[in-house]
Amino acid sequence: MVAELVETSRLWGRIAARIDPEWIEPLAQHLIKRSYSEPHWEKAQGAVMAQEKVTLYGLPIVAARKVNYSDIDPALCRELFIRHALVEGDWQTATRSSATTSSCGQK
Length: 107
Hints:
This protein is α+β, with helices and mostly antiparallel strands.
């Protein structure tokens, strides 16, 4: 951000200030675009996570933020949860019934 533009043979900006990208996101909610990629089951989180990219007029504000994907695409999250957590057993719980269920499936 600059306070003054000076045009000589080229365009120059004087009195420049640095802009923190964290300031832009809450103020420009109506202008930013969000895109999501790589939804995957995260064992440590116990949820489907994805990478979020936030842009303002094509300028990246947030390049790769890890977000919970359940509010974005619940149907895909359900499918990934069933496939990874339940079928492949990639879900950590502290309940006794889960240990009993997994031992029944091995017999």
